[in-house]
## 1
Amino acid sequence: MNDNKSHATAAFACVTTLFFAWGFVTSIIDPLIPAVKSVFTLNYAESMLTQFAWFIAYGLVSLPAAALLARLGFVVSIIVALVAMVLGCLLVPVATMLDAYPGVLLALFVIASGVTLLQVAANPLVAVLGAPERSHFRLTFSQAFNSLGTVIGPYLGATIMLSGGLFGAGPDAGAGRTETLRSIDTQFILVASFFAALAIFIWLVRSRIRAAAPTAQDAVAPWRAFGSGWALFGGLAIFLYVGAEVAIASIMINFLVHIEFHTFLARLGFIDALARAGLIDPASTPEEIAGKTLGLCYWGGAMIGRFVGSWLLTKVNAGALLAIAASITTVLCVVVSQASGPAGGVAALSIGFFNSIMFPTIFTLTLARSSAPTSAVSGLLCMAIVGGAVIPPLTGATADALGVGLAFLVPAGAYLGVIAFAAARAKPVSARAATASIVGH
């Protein structure tokens, strides 16, 4: 018994590194958006196509990924996913050398296809690595490390992609454009190296993961999840939540620059404090400061919220906590749409903290109550992340038409759907029922 517990703990620690990895690469898209907006001369809606290219992969790849998981098992699926992510990152420099924005979008789709398979495998794996009644805690705790990746990603991305080049003070626009393109290349080559190292690490610890993972499931048709009403409702909630979260993060840098939030931070002494800590250069461009603020405050708030939330979920009903968090984010979005100046920026950045527990809580509530096999449900839920391809472009189009502040009303509407999911949650299930549902027997 103790051996099984130690195997599960070791496997859980190893798999949690994957959550960091996809949080890191997904959040790099946030500073990439103003970079491509400037270098390819795009409007808000066109620049949001980066998120469309990324998140449409979830809609197209999730169900095939679920079938692949059922056939290959957890470890091989994870390795395949990481290799695909490396290849996609290496396509980015090819696209920029060709000066082709569609090529960048294609590269992002390839990376996101690998991330999709990674999530289809890792989310249910964490859910079953221990006692069923603690699955909410484990997935939320792993998502906290996902949030650590989302803090570091925008910070590093802003440092590399939003400093110098077109964002500097140089008069030579042509040279600045070339410098920005090469900065984008550098960012993705570094990310490719990281994923290659992670793939080697997972291969070296594969025996630990296999020892703790449940017996491989028989191959099942991924579309069997469509026969579960609870799986469909959970999929809708994931669609709306991810769309809202991604839309807010995608527009945040441009929003903070628009309201000149960097001047407010300077008056507070925040920039000087970061400069003394070696985290920022006081002479940084407004875009770079906004990108780092996004990472430290919005995604940093989500990371703190997930650590706090993982503890709260051992004390508070998961559905009730989800309803409270979604209600607060809705109110904050409305505040942003109506406020001007620093108040709007503070409200927008605060949303990250309350977003923190939504994805893992929706995911585990759905797994616990769905009657379909785990691999099929996981595929459906990851497919629902395609909301990140739909809601951000709508938000961008709203920003072009009505202004960047009023665009926050789009994610506000999405959060209302999450509230409905939380309100309609099923009554708590027994540990035995949860085990049967999660394992898929």
## 2
Amino acid sequence: MRVPMIAGNWKMNTTVAEAVELVNEMRKGLDEIKGVEKVVCPPFVSLAAIKELIKGSSIKLGAQNLYFEEKGAYTGEVSPLMLAGLCEFVIIGHSERRQYFGETDEIVNKKIKAALKAGLKPILCIGERLEENEAGKTAEVVTGQLKSSLAGTDYPSGFIIAYEPVWAIGTGKAATGKQANETIGLIRRNISEMYGEQAAQDVRILYGGSVTAANTAEFMQQSEIDGALVGGASLRANEFLSIVRQTAEIRK
């Protein structure tokens, strides 16, 4: 039985003080909810403060990105070694990184390998653009991203995949539960081909893209979906708590 995960990607939002305030608002409520793994992914500048704040709680910590080199003349970048003592998870390959910063599958693959070497658990994001979806290329694009991003890796324990259709991220237009479930089922079949059926049954695959408290139940009722990577809704304590609480109720 895969334990569902709800991860909050705060993106480029919250000062350190605001991040601390947000976690303080959620901590007690999140600790009361059992049966769901809860992860928050604040900006780099808040990781150290949040790490201290969540000690002794059930909340886990993730970063939003990393660079694939361990150190060097890469001004402004954050290496896996810098994150290894701070957090457990790291988001890699988010569509915003691909779209705005030119990250290719090859770069994502290097980041995956660097994260694994440092003992971090990647949350690999894959998903198609609107024009690809409308052209019926979802399976082709998602399969290609998955295989390229994981090329040359053994199946890593604790690895997470997030299916995030680009057309649904921050747009308010989520995929339907049925659409998401079908694509995540495809991803799971690909994992089986790559790493074996046991790996396919073990891996947790999340849905991301305009997830809110209002549509959480639709996704969590689907057999292939193991949780959600939540964007804007994770910045509102009560809404994030509702998403986690609904997940726990549906999956108990």
## 3
Amino acid sequence: MTFIIYGVGAIGGTIAGRLAHSGQPVAGIARGTQLAALRANGLLLRTPGGDIRASFPVAADPADLAIGPGDVIILAIKGQDTADALARLRAAGVTTQPIVCAQNGVDNERAALRLFPNVYGMTVILPADFIRPGEVAAFGTPKSGLFDIGRYPRGRDATAEAIADALSKAGFAAFVHDEVMQSKYGKLLSNLGNVLDAAAGDAAEKSDILTSARAEAEAVYRAAGITLDGTGSPDDKRRRDNVRVGDIAGTDRVGSSTAQSLARSTGSIETDYFNGEIALLGRLHGVAVPVNAALAALGHRLVADKLKPGSLSLAEVQAFIDTRKGMN
């Protein structure tokens, strides 16, 4: 069983580096300067416990890898890139291989299930930053990350158990979850603040805007019949016990994955799959979601204006939200 890591960035790089270091067969799919760096020098994974150097085959397209029937494909890309990745996997001849959505948001699994029969959701709690091509910092300690994994839409099987076991042996806290989407919807509540973190920095964490966004989401969940079990949330005891943010000499955290996208000027942002997901559910179930709808629009403004993380004040963010009133 080879783990095919589709997207060797902060999350995918940490997973690939840890799995390879533990002796698991790994291959990666990357692009641009990251692809070139990985081919030239392998991956440097920096952790609170020391640096790890991992080398593994890496390609620009899944068609360039010999993906076998027993391999596991882990999607570690942003939600806006999922459709293209799935199309490339199908073109490469992937059929029944497990597709593991190690991604934030809750839409990726449904998109994957349209094309592939064996889809697994994975909640990812993993504080990591892309530093430069070929180098990733994983700040989690004593475990690099925490994962809940289960079949989509629900259930467990031997494959989920085998994946969780391999991840656990590689230095993660991995758990098989019978209702994995409950965990992922819980994580989504945490991701609603990503765009605020990207726009205004640390001040956003305890802002009234974030409180309102989460209150809207909770109202939407009730209307949609979505239940949570506490896993994936910041209050999850397993998270507190297994994944604390440690120090890495000479390296500071950039922030959320959304802030990292802005810092790297990637030209896209995940907000449509976070706040935009709540906006979608609100419109489907007749729940007013003005704050989340405005925050989804804010994400596009940040990208269009090529703003760097922390460029706006909370007052400016609130003013933007106010201009969007009535546009829910």
## 4
Amino acid sequence: MNFFLETLIGGLLAGVLYSMVAIGFVLIYKASGVFNFAQGSLLLFAALTFVSLTERGFSFWVAFLLTLATMAVVAVLIERFLLRPLVARSPITLFMATLGLSYIIEGVAQALWGADVHGLDLGIDDVPFPIGPISVSRFDLIAAATAGLLVVGLALFAGRSRLGLSLRAVADDPLAALSLGVRLPKIWRWVWTLAGLVGLIAGLFWGSRSGVQFSLSLVVLKAMPVLVIGGFDSIAGALVGGLIVGASEKLAEVYIGEIVGGGIENWFPYALAIASLMVRPAGLFGERAIERV
């Protein structure tokens, strides 16, 4: 039983890291109704910017604030030169635009910092932390607590603030929101800045665990089943979906993997996502699209 609990809790804590990546997708989707394929590249760019600043002698918080300011500048550039010319275009057009943006960001990052792997030490030791009869990772506990605070803050922002309500209006109908006085460029700049903040925090934890390298952008693949299960337009759904994916993949690897020869951790979440699409296409917390005909 202790081994089962350790596996379950370890999976839940790992799932929180997946949720942090997925939240960046949710923010952009809620503002534009499009899947932002460039979120992984933003995560990589933020992590590379931060680690490059710390390697040049800047303190943690100075590097963090400078990186956040850099991501805000990136958000302004994306809004001005990519999103503004594509207002009211089809979702597939915006998706292809973010696909191209992903490669541009990675190319700029490589030109600025090269392709070397950078070590990142957040000062958090990945050592067992005893909780009663079981032990869990101290690093995962701190990451989970950080993600929890982030989710609560973003949920309050989306549901209580005027900017958050404007964001939801833009997601429902950009042209109608414009006619009511909502400033679409301002909304998109804020949302992409928030997505950059989420990408920075997620990039720090993932980079600390596996090193800051270009394969870090592929962490977005872990967010796919999280979004499908939790819902593309729900911050709470991203958290719940991450917990489900994290716990299920660890338990499946331990208890089913030994029966089929192992190696199912990488694809089991996608099988779970396909099953979820068959039962609830909009996800557990997603809103079903209602179209008048």
